[in-house]
Specification:
Strand order of the largest sheet: 1-2
Structural class: mainly alpha
Number of strands: 2
Largest sheet: 2 strands, antiparallel
Strand content: under 5%
Order of helices and strands: EEHHHHH
Length: 195
């Protein structure tokens, strides 16, 4: 066994590796915190820009409708209505990623079992799940609005597929991870009280 004596403390080779691994996780978490913040801003900004500047064909296709024949150009009233219906999903996605960034920030400071990180992970899971639900509802309402407004014929498209299923599974996974970390923190606290 490799042992290093530093001051009054003996550090084994295994503990050095653990310390190095912990430092690596903290650095990676710091990077991921910034990446999540960039993605949060991207989700909100692109949600607004696409709805405001996309042409009729793009809007119909995004809503799950097949453009057929002549369509009117979307006016500002339609674009504002689409923003009102679809922006909440973008905002919830941005909020979810902001909460994920907060969890990574806590981990980057070495607080793997602290309350801040756990609350942030739960917030991410809840916001991600809500964003999926609001997105499916928003896309359905958008398809009705777009079909009536642009083509004059009513149609509805309900868009729920593997992407939404994956997001729901991810939200569930993060909820369970947060629960496991909370239990580990509780056990660590309980063990500390016995010592």
């Amino acid at each position: 066994m490799n042992e290093t004596v530093t001051g009054q403390t003996q550090v084994t080779g295994q503990e050095q590796v653990t310390g190095q691994e912990r430092a690596r996780i903290e650095r990676l978490s710091g990077v991921m915190s910034w990446v999540a913040l960039v993605f949060a801003a991207f989700a909100v900004i692109t949600g607004i820009l696409v709805l405001w500047f996309a042409d009729a064909q793009t809007l119909l296709t995004a809503a799950g409708l097949q453009p057929a024949g002549e369509t009117q150009a979307p006016d500002n009233g339609l674009r504002l209505a689409l923003l009102a219906v679809n922006l909440p999903a973008s905002l919830l996605t941005g909020y979810a990623l902001w909460r994920l960034s907060a969890a990574f920030r806590a981990f980057s400071q070495g607080d793997f079992f602290g309350r801040d990180g756990l609350v942030a992970l739960r917030g991410f899971a809840i916001a991600l799940l809500l964003s999926v639900i609001v997105d499916v509802v928003g896309n359905t309402v958008s398809s009705i609005m777009l079909s009536l407004w642009l083509t004059g014929k009513g149609a509805v498209a309900i868009m729920f597929g593997t992407t939404e299923l994956f997001a729901i599974a991810t939200a569930g996974l993060f909820w369970v991870i947060a629960a496991i970390l909370a239990e580990a923190a509780r056990l660590e606290d309980e063990n500390r009280q016995f010592v």
